[in-house]
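In the design runs reported in the main text, the only information available to the sequence generator was the tokenized backbone. The following block is the verbatim input for one such run; it is reproduced so that readers can re-run the procedure and compare outputs position by position.
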């Protein structure tokens, strides 16, 4: 929350300094998530596969004329999934198994600084980057066939880097890479192991927005 508060203060200061003729738009945004978990320090015990989800929600955007600099913010319901394959050596025998397809619903607040430049009145390009706060809405428990082996964090902080095109000044199509800045969850007591493994979930997003 402290990180988000600092970011919001900076954005408010940016808005305060914006000229009176700044352009404000609002609209709806949706798209596809392609996420993959990574586990730190597991020694190759786990292997994560890509999982596809979706997101949707309202969006607002402010752009300063002439220089093309602005910010945008969204309030998104985002559905992600995680599935892990793992192998355990039990008495000299390798046992392989897969976790259930874990449903991961989030409320996400991305706030991006963006730079817009147009090739004509019909087509433009934008670059965007900024922080994202994620609030987890589902069951935090992680299970892998033999009971609970970990949990997901209730809230996480991540960073977005993206680019896209603007068509007819209203339609936006873009791609974003969302980078987890801390652990998404933690695996604890895997079988007889005492280690704790940090789980991070990075996500590619293909997004479509229409602004009025």
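Verbatim output:
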């Amino acid at each position: 929350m402290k990180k988000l508060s600092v970011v919001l203060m900076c954005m408010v200061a940016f808005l305060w300094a914006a000229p009176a003729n700044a352009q404000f738009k609002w609209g709806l945004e949706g798209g596809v998530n392609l996420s993959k978990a990574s586990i730190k320090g597991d020694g190759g015990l786990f292997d994560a596969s890509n999982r596809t989800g979706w997101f949707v929600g309202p969006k607002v955007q402010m752009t300063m004329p002439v220089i093309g600099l602005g910010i945008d913010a969204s309030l998104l319901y985002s559905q992600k999934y995680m599935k892990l394959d793992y192998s355990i050596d039990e008495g000299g025998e390798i046992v392989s198994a897969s976790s259930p397809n874990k449903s991961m619903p989030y409320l996400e607040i991305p706030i991006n600084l963006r730079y817009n430049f147009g090739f004509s009145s019909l087509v433009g390009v934008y670059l965007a980057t900024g922080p994202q706060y994620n609030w987890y809405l589902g069951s935090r428990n992680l299970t892998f066939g033999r009971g609970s082996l970990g949990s997901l964090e209730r809230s996480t902080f991540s960073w977005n880097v993206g680019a896209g095109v603007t068509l007819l000044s209203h339609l936006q199509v873009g791609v974003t890479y969302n980078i987890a800045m801390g652990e998404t969850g933690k695996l604890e007591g895997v079988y007889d192991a005492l280690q704790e493994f940090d789980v991070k979930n990075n996500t590619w997003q293909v997004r479509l927005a229409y602004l009025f």
